[in-house]
Amino acid sequence: MERKxxxxxxxxxxxxxxxxxxxxxxxxxxxxxxxxxLCGLLEIVGLEDPQDMEVEILVAVPRxxxxxxxxVEAVVPFGRRRAVAVAGGMTAPGLCLPSxxxxxxxxxxxxxxxxxxxxxxSPPAAAAR
Length: 129
Description:
The chain is 18% helix and 38% strand. It contains 3 helices and 5 strands.
């Protein structure tokens, strides 16, 4: 079986108060997923069970070591999921509201790339001459 890329969708997520890397990353993935209807997997590719697709999630945040990858993976509703966090994204000046999160005044912006793969039969080898 050969692994084939079906779609790549990009998203952006923000945590306005709290500097929560996981929340920003999850929102970025949710943004990407919310724009994709993968009906072609069932209707064209012939995938019988959406759980059979493979989903790779790449999130970029200022502090990747703080991302709870299992929470980010849980945003994707189907498939075998694997998330990776890398340095990136952005922080911007914000407003600290102690009622929402104490000691924070930065907005965290995350970017995500969600890639869906399917396994397809490998093409037959060329006949020997």
